Amino acid sequence: MQRFHEKVVIVTGAGSGMGEATARRFSEEGANVVLVDYHAENVNRVAAELPPERTMVQVVDVSQSFAVNAMVSMTVAKFGKLDVIVNNAGVHEAGEPTEISDERWQKVMDTDAGGVFFGCRAAIPHLEKTRGVIINTASVSGTGGDWGMSPYNAAKGAVVNLTRALALDLGKKGIRVNSVCPSLTRTGMTEEMLKDEALIAKFKERIPLGRICEPEEVAAVIAFLASDDASFITGANIAVDGGVSASNGQPAQG
User: Fold this and answer.
1) Which of these is catalytic: 26, 117, 118, 152?
2) Bridge partners (DSSP) listed for residue 87
3) Are the C-beta atoms of residues 218 and 182 closer than 8 Å to each other?
């Protein structure tokens, strides 16, 4: 299936986890893919396994608006256009609210919320020309609260409502805006958590499907939302959570 033949797609946080799986999925479906990550070693490892003529790497800190602007400009300079941006890069800080320093709070907000906004803003003029698509990675942690995760919850909640707001603003420009809201997913961010068998067993009890999510499952939903198969979907925050939202259970980090 080549739904993205000759399309140009930016994926941030493409050096691992959901971003890596998403970049691979778009490449498999024929896209020219720009892999963006803060960690050069990680993103270059992924890029080395993709077709070089359709792959571009950019090492970017998405919390810096000037860097995001340059990222989008360099993408268009190389490929001539932009069809899809997937704002996926994120960081995580956990702890009791009184333990969260100003610096830790700001780091999460600048990256997880600010980075998404900067990516959307920089992409809009180019997506208007192609009637393109924005996909943001939010989380079920942005639709309900978790214990000990207040900065992450706040940032992902911002992404959820930003997605709705941008869909209203950009629909008239022909740009669709959606987000995915994963639950507990096997990524680098959750690597240490997944080693705690007792904790994971408790998470699984709250997930109706009884297991954690794989990054390829999130990538599949992102690809669907970016495709013409989802041509009348905008402003949606799609739960990829094994039924957590339906059960009204405690959100599990995505």
Assistant:
1) 152
2) 136
3) yes
List of domains in the chain: 8-243 (3.40.50.720)
Separation CA 125–CA 82 (nearest Å): 9
- Is 152 annotated as catalytic? yes
pLDDT tens string 59-78? 999 999 999 999 999 999 99
Strand order in the sheet with 133-137: 55-59, 32-37, 8-12, 84-87, 133-137, 176-182, 237-240
Strands 8-12 and 32-37: parallel
Q: What is the pLDDT of residue 191?
A: 66
Largest Cα span, the chain:
51
Query: In the prediction, which pLDDT does 147 show?
Result: 84
Question: What is the per-residue pLDDT for 254?
Answer: 56
Return the amino acid letter for 2: Q
**Interatomic CA distance for residues 189 and 19, integer angstroms:** 12
Regions in the chain scoring below 50 on pLDDT:
249-252
Quote the Cα angle for 217-54-215, to 5°.
Answer: 15
Cβ atoms of residues 181 and 140 within 8 Å? yes
Q: According to the model, what pLDDT value does residue 149 have? A: 87
Give me the pLDDT at residue 197, please: 76
- Of the candidates 13, 5, 6, 8, the one whose C-alpha atom is nearest the C-alpha of residue 219 is 13
Looking at residue 201, its pLDDT comes to: 78
166 with 119: CB under 8 angstroms?
Answer: no
| Residue 154, CA distances (Å) to 43, 59, 147 in order | 27, 26, 12
Structure-block tokens of residue 72: 């989008």
What DSSP assignment string belongs to 9-42? Answer: EEEETTTSHHHHHHHHHHHHTT-EEEEEES-HHH
